[in-house]
Design a protein that fits this description.
homodimer, globular, Alkaline Phosphatase, subunit A, alpha/beta, eight-stranded mixed sheet, 2 domains, 14 helices
């Protein structure tokens, strides 16, 4: 799709705002038969839906539950099946580590092994984050030849390992490595193996890191060993601002989403911790950018907690911000999300996500409410996420026609 | 899709009429909130929609505005992204030039250059068509070794250049050539370059044509030079009558649409300049063909002019012809279009286009009006244009089942 779009892009002065409600889609609460969106009072979104073209977004494929990475890459116009981002890279983005091209990142777990080296707990009793921080301090003593070693604490028992080659030239590092987590108890961690000849040197470095970690953690019960998964490097993605010819800004309070936006080359604007801060940032930067990705986290958080009422509340708070966004005068306003997080699932869901595209040229349909059920009858139909950006560009009058 | 369909085709005596309303889809007029289709009085189309299965057609992909080429190829069952037709070929079809396999066609502009050869006007002040005709007469004096040269005037400053190899054998001509239009003022026209080794000989011929043209036009102010774009050859398309097993007729008053139908192997019937002439041609040829592509231009013309009321009028005129078409007793009647031409855009649009498929076996849905909004809720959903022909063939009872 990007190859089809790129030659059609023309410049214009139109402004585009994409509001991504994380985990937007939901499911009916069994007691009422109404989803979070159907339960919430959303006068502004209803009005917008009445004026807009509506539909549903499918981020990966029917039945596939998207993670945050594929969910957002889809919204940004990238086919998530073609452009895959490994877990190690996502973890690094999630703690806003400044990952560079060529770095190899892995997700680490602190775990517990017995006297014979067999795993007795893959998460070391889900140790607290402050214990995790102390343990990563120990691992930071590890030195490996020819590379910088970064060990960054995450939440609970998680950390991120990054190896960065010192030499700009040379073969460099490779992430084609097998994981050390056997995924079962009673077995020792697996040896790291190179999955391609070019990864042999990196496999040797990681093996040495694991051996050193075992030694440094030996007396650190209960977390006395590490498991490493999801080795990966930054993917080579076409750059969003160049592909679409848009001065592009990302406004997100959470590091993971800033990281995903940075991955595609958007400018990540400094903002505060709340959605009000994000809106202030949007206002302040209105004149200097063409495209704004604005991220709203509360919907996902409530859904993940399985808290139906909290998700209803999060939707109603977002609804109250819509007039402020419209007051800025965007030419194209898109409301959608990166995946569903139905409260009844207390986690991400595979359900397609409501989509609303408003512009002067969006066309009308019969949809007058921003809900899963209403949007299913909208004029946009059920579309793959990567088809959204072309539609947005068309509504912004930034594409010429295909074929004479 | 064509590969799946072809082995399933069986013969039958059923008759199919596909009425393509050029630029059918529209957008609401801001003052009323109603589109052209929603404003027009269309009793016959409403009745047909009530009896038919409805939906929306998307010709290329969401957000992509189709040109007439991709728009019609989609209606004829061809994936427009797979089968692309270059601008040179479309221009040649548009003037009904008898383009043959192997010919290289380019779109030409007469332009203005200054004393140092730099472009000062890419369209030579949009010279009148009769000036264009006189200038092409000059260019027809050009002779090139081993090829026939055709220079055919188009509208205003446009012409078509066609090179035809004299030898049936040999490597032949290639259209893998760079364009000469630098797309900016103040620069001289670009040299033609071969984009593939096999195009070297053709590049040399075109360069010689350009040099001769410069000499012949030197004293012909303001149009004293040419620019060449969109070099292409006839694409190799599966032939529509053979793929679908249909004796296929195209009835179109405008040359471009006759050309597109010829491109896929339909028989182009001689007809007059009006839609009434087209309907007479339809009646006269009813017994000798199975499939009729009937083209209606007025909707697009009014839309391109940005004339909302004229488009409403064009729709109402078409509506009055529906009983005549039904009186012929088609087994399958399809009403749709090749792309939207919303009057508020005064040009082609990316919006999906209403679709109506009537047959004894089409199934009913709740749609009772032939409008963008109503069709969005139809039982056919939003489908790619190339999925229409299989659906039509099924309704004509001309396909056996897939898999035993």
């Amino acid at each position: 799709m990007l190859d089809v779009i790129a030659p059609l892009v023309v410049s214009n002065t139109t402004k585009i705002v994409l509001v991504s409600l994380d985990g937007l889609g939901g499911l009916p609460r069994p007691e009422t038969g109404r989803s979070e969106l159907e339960t919430a009072q959303l006068p502004n979104l209803s009005q917008l839906a009445t004026e807009a073209a509506c539909g549903l977004i499918r981020h990966v494929a029917p039945g596939i539950t998207p993670g945050s990475g594929p969910g957002h890459l889809g919204l940004f116009g990238y086919d998530p099946l073609r452009y895959q981002v490994g877990r190690g890279v996502l973890e690094a983005l999630g703690i806003e580590f400044d990952l560079r091209a060529g770095d190899v990142a892995a997700r680490g777990n602190f775990c517990t092994v017995d006297g014979t080296g067999r795993i007795t707990d893959r998460r070391a009793g889900r140790i607290a984050t402050d214990v995790c921080v102390r343990l990563t301090e120990r691992l930071r003593r590890i030195r490996l030849p020819g590379v910088e070693v970064f060990v960054e604490p995450g939440k609970d028992y998680r950390f991120v390992l990054v190896l960065r080659g010192r030499a700009r030239s040379g073969g460099g590092l490779s992430a084609r490595l097998s994981e050390t987590d056997p995924q079962v108890l009673g077995k020792p961690p697996l040896a790291v193996k190179a999955l391609a000849p070019r990864a042999k040197a990196t496999a040797a470095l990681v093996s040495r890191f694991v051996a050193e970690a075992r030694r440094l953690l030996a007396d650190a019960a209960p977390a006395n060993m590490v498991l490493l998964r999801g080795f990966d490097q930054l993917p080579k993605l076409p750059r969003f601002p160049e592909v679409f010819g848009l001065r592009s800004a990302a406004i997100a309070a959470y590091p993971m989403y800033r990281g995903l936006a940075k991955l595609v080359g958007m400018e990540v604007l400094k903002t505060g911790a709340t959605f009000d801060d994000e809106l202030a940032t949007l206002r302040e930067n209105w004149d200097t950018h063409d495209f704004f990705f604005v991220h709203y986290k509360d919907t996902d958080k409530a859904g993940e907690d399985g808290d139906f009422d909290a998700k209803v509340g999060a939707l109603e708070r977002l609804d109250r911000a819509i007039p402020d966004i419209r007051a800025l005068g965007p030419d194209v306003l898109i409301i959608s999300g990166d995946h569903a997080t139905p409260s009844v699932l207390a986690g991400h869901g595979w359900q397609p996500v409501p989509l609303l595209v408003w512009s002067r040229y969006c066309g009308a349909d019969a949809v007058a409410a921003f809900t899963e059920r209403a949007c299913a009858g909208g004029s946009l139909g059920v579309i793959p996420a990567q088809h959204l950006m072309p539609l947005v560009m068309a509504n912004a009058l930034r594409l010429i026609k295909f074929g004479a």
